[in-house]
Amino acid sequence: MAGNIIVIKMSADNADSEKDMMMMFCCAGCGTPEVDDIKLKQCAACDLVRYCSDTCQKDHRLQHKNECKKRAAELRDEILFKQPESSHLGDCPICCLPLPLDPRNFLMNPCCTKTICIGCNFANQKREFQAGKKENLCPFCRTPLTTTDEGSELHLKKRAEANDPIGLFKMGDICCHRGEHERSIEYFTRAAGLGVAISHCVLANAYQNGQGVERDEKRAINHWEEAAIGGHPGARFNLGAIEEHNRRADGSQADRAVRHYIIAANLGHDGSLEQLKKLYPLGLVSKEDFAATLRAHKNVVDETKSKQREEAEAANFYSI
């Protein structure tokens, strides 16, 4: 009697899975497997395929192009829509409490380029006044505070020469106010490369308006996105507004805009929360997401409050 023949049927999912495994362990162009003397390099734009040589990657480009573009967009969105742990401002280096988003409630001293909350600045000045000191010292580095624009610029130049990110940004700001746009773009670009989110915002505006650079909407969007990834809620709000505009233009859903507004509101951005309040009655924001965002916004704003900061506000001690 002939032996039974066992037929193994492979499902479509299993077949796709095996294909994916083959693509990761073999060159997508020629099928060469990765062994000791052959190292495969991953596609720079996506994580789907690997190649044994530049020639194979070039020959496979047309076949892989659409899939690569789709996967690259997915990977970008994973980074873009990740909730930052804090805003781009971070914490006050003295009291270690989160800095509020209102620029009147913190101050950057040019001597060390540290951003200090008004509570710590106010407490420092009050202590020095009570001690009878004639000059104010930086609450962080204890350098005498300059009272002139020339003195501030001198400090900032030294910080920029030391490749200090905030020093570079502030020098770009100074050059911009003087009308030296090309030079300011150089400073802003260097600062952005070192992770200064607000520099990305400035560059986004520059490329959007063609100020100091050739107008480029694509690069402007990229800088808005980099600023948003860096925790800048204002940049995130702008991206939400852009997505809303695109929704009205092509009839697409508002999901991306809502996601941007939720992330920004979770960082304490009032404008984004107000926008969500407008979208909620339209059914564009779920009840669960709206309630969670309201709680998160309140919690993050409460975290920026302290008795010391309240005393400074009561005394009208603002940085602007």
Architecture overview:
Helix content is 57%, strand content 4%. The chain is built from 14 helices and four strands. Helix 4 (118-130) crosses helix 14 (307-314), helix 5 (149-161) crosses helix 6 (165-177) and helix 11 runs parallel beside helix 13 (287-303).
Features:
single chain; about 325 residues; mainly alpha; two-stranded antiparallel ribbon; 14 helices; about 5% strand; globular
Question: What's the shape?
Answer: globular
**Number of helices, counting only DSSP H or I runs of 4 residues or more:** 14
Share of β-strand residues: under 5%
Described by strand count, sense and barrel closure, the largest sheet is: 2 strands, antiparallel
Mean pLDDT, to the nearest integer, reads 89
Q: What strand line-up does the widest sheet have?
A: 1-2
Global Rg:
26 Å
Termini separation (Å)? 96 Å
- Contiguous low-pLDDT stretches (5 residues minimum) are 1-13
Order of helices and strands: HEEHHEEHHHHHHHHHHH
Helix content: 55-70%
The total strand number stands at 4
SSE-based structural type: mainly alpha
Entry summary:
The chain is mainly α. The protein has 14 helices and four strands. The chain has helices spanning 12-25, 54-59, 61-80, 118-130, 149-161, 165-177, 181-193, 197-209, 217-229, 233-250, 255-266, 270-279, 287-303, 307-314; strands at residues 41-42, 50-51, 106-109, 114-117.
Layout of helices and strands:
Blueprint: H1 12-25, E1 41-42, E2 50-51, H2 54-59, H3 61-80, E3 106-109, E4 114-117, H4 118-130, H5 149-161, H6 165-177, H7 181-193, H8 197-209, H9 217-229, H10 233-250, H11 255-266, H12 270-279, H13 287-303, H14 307-314
Antiparallel strand pairs: 1-2, 3-4
Helix pairs in contact: 4-14, 5-6, 6-7, 7-8, 8-9, 9-10, 10-11, 11-12, 11-13, 12-13
